[in-house]
């Protein structure tokens, strides 16, 4: 029975996001949330995936690779590692192309030390691109990114677009960079992580919604779910994602790493 391909993705941010949002957020208690992700959440997620024989793609900042090497080695032994910046700085926050390039290159070096090879895939911190990001990813020979939203479930080639504020939008030409699209509607962080103005959603509703989205996705969909070990790594939440996995498997879904999906488009 034709059914969507599901990509379970984990953005293993750990401590890194608290360092670059603004200085006031870099506090011991905020960092402890990342520590939970690194020391408890990620091992729980690894056990969950192992028990169910599930492939997954982990987008890991170089900061996490360098700070939590043991658990990152366990992740790399079992799953695809994608790039997620070194410092988890949102790309449009960089003051120059060179500063963004330096951070991406530092992230590649961390992953190469971990896996022995450069990552094929990239996910931008905060799902944000600067005006230079796509160009840099092409220059650095990334095969794919999983950060954009121009389609719901269908991979596409990122366009070199321009949007002058005083003239028409120009979608430009397709680049060589494949986008395996994401959606805020399939991300655990906005509804389930307390971030001042968000969080405290009725939790079952989130997983019910993911199930409904899956049930309405076309058979040839690539259904990307984005999760964070510090958010999803609690046992009660893993049980809920486990029920989603069982539901998708019963419907005939195949689970794949994002890189495996991207290879089909070579
Ligand atoms: Zn992230």
Q: How would you describe the overall organization of this protein?
A:
The protein has 266 residues and is of the alpha/beta class. Strands 1, 2, 3, 8 and 9 form a 5-stranded parallel beta sheet that branches. Strand 4, helix 6 and strand 5 form a beta-alpha-beta unit. The protein is globular and about 45 Å long.
Can you give me a brief rundown of this structure?
The chain has 266 residues and is an alpha/beta fold. Helices cover 43% and strands 14% of the residues.
The CATH topology name reads TIM Barrel
Q: Helical segment tally?
A: 11
Strand segment tally: 9
Spans of at least 5 consecutive residues whose pLDDT stays below 50 are none
C-alpha termini separation? 25 Å
Chemical compounds bound to the protein: zinc ion
Largest sheet: 5 strands, parallel
H/E topology pattern: EHHEHHEHEHEEEHHEHHEH
Q: Give the amount of beta strand, in percent.
A: 5-15%
Number of domains: 1
Indicate the radius of gyration in whole angstroms.
Answer: 18 Å
Structural class determined from secondary elements: alpha/beta
The rough form would be described as: globular
CATH level 1 name: Alpha Beta
The CATH architecture designation is Alpha-Beta Barrel
Q: Approximately how much helix is present in the residues?
A: 40-55%
CATH superfamily: Glycoside hydrolase/deacetylase
Question: What's the average pLDDT?
Answer: 95
């Amino acid at each position: 029975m034709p059914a969507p391909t599901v990509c379970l993705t984990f953005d293993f941010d750990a401590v890194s996001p608290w360092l670059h949002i603004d200085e006031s957020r870099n506090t011991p208690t905020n960092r402890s949330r990342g520590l939970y992700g690194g020391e408890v959440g990620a091992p729980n997620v690894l056990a969950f995936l192992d028990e169910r024989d599930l492939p997954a793609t982990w987008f890991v900042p170089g900061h996490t690779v360098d700070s939590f090497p043991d658990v990152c080695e366990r992740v790399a032994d079992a799953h695809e590692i994608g790039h997620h910046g070194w410092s988890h700085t949102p790309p449009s926050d960089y003051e120059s192309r060179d500063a963004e390039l330096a951070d991406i290159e530092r992230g590649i070096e961390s992953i190469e030390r971990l896996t022995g090879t450069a990552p094929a895939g990239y996910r931008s911190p905060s799902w944000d691109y600067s005006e230079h990001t796509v160009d840099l990813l092409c220059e650095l020979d990334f095969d794919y990114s999983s950060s954009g939203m121009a389609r719901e479930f269908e991979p596409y080639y990122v366009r070199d677009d321009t949007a002058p504020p005083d003239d028409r939008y120009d979608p430009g030409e397709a680049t060589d960079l494949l986008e395996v699209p994401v959606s805020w509607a399939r991300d655990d962080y906005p509804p389930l992580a307390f971030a001042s103005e968000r969080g405290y959603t009725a939790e079952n509703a989130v997983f019910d919604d993911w199930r409904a989205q899956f049930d309405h996705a076309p058979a040839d969909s690539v259904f990307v779910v984005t999760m964070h070990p510090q958010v999803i790594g609690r046992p009660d939440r893993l049980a809920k994602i486990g029920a989603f996995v069982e539901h998708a498997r019963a419907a005939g879904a195949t689970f794949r790493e994002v890189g495996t999906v991207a290879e089909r488009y070579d």
